[in-house]
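so my prof wants the structure for this chain in the tokens format not the other one, which i didnt know existed until like an hour ago. anyway here's the sequence
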Amino acid sequence: MRPTRPTLIIVGHGSSTSKAAEVAAREHAETLRQSNRYGSVLVHFLTGGGPVPDLPAGEVFILPFFMSEGYFARRKIPEVFGLVSGERHEPERSLYQCDALGVDPFLAEILKQMAGEACRTLGIATGQAHVVLAAHGSKSSGASREAALFQQGELERIGDFRAVSSFFLEEAPGFEDLMRGRKEDQAPVIVLGLFSAAGPHASVDVPAALTAWEQMEKAAGNSTLAEVHYAGVVGVRPEVVRLIQESVTRRYAAPVRGAK
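here's what i got, hopefully its the right format
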């Protein structure tokens, strides 16, 4: 079953308190509709998103709009869409789950571009910058850490930055811990948010962590601090549209495991 134009569904978490992630997903979906590469581009949210939309016949690709392959990507999405090993096959349609946003190899290219733009803003060479990825983290699951460290490794591989590190909001190391271990290094720090949108974690918690570190250092009498620049959130970047397209293409080319 290889229709001319498949269906794409972007699946996000959704929230009763912040619509930021929903806005980002919907904006990417609208851009993807305009590309005319897909017969339909749908958006569904697991929290407060209502029932799963009617699925057209043909091939349907599900893109988890999550920054890790944690509970929602590994368990909730397969449960909601009735997937087995990331697939579901029916007489009229086949469903395929793509990689989650945060574990896509192309995400590191977007992070590299963000860091490069920040370097130009600061007037420094990329080799002078310490790039730091800010991620959610969790004390109960290693998925967020795994995704962040994967992107850290990819960014180290494709970039030429002085250093690449990660910190977490809900597990160690936090930003203070990270900077304490690099106290003698005064390289400019560029922080990149590993979040799908500019929700509370990205817009409130990350800046608060950076401010807390600065206040702690000044209270300790340390007046010479590394310059810290927060370059924003990766999930809202327009390049994510290309990432989604490449993810679908990669999944499209993968062997069909469940078809008979």
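also thought this was worth mentioning. The chain has a mean pLDDT of 92.
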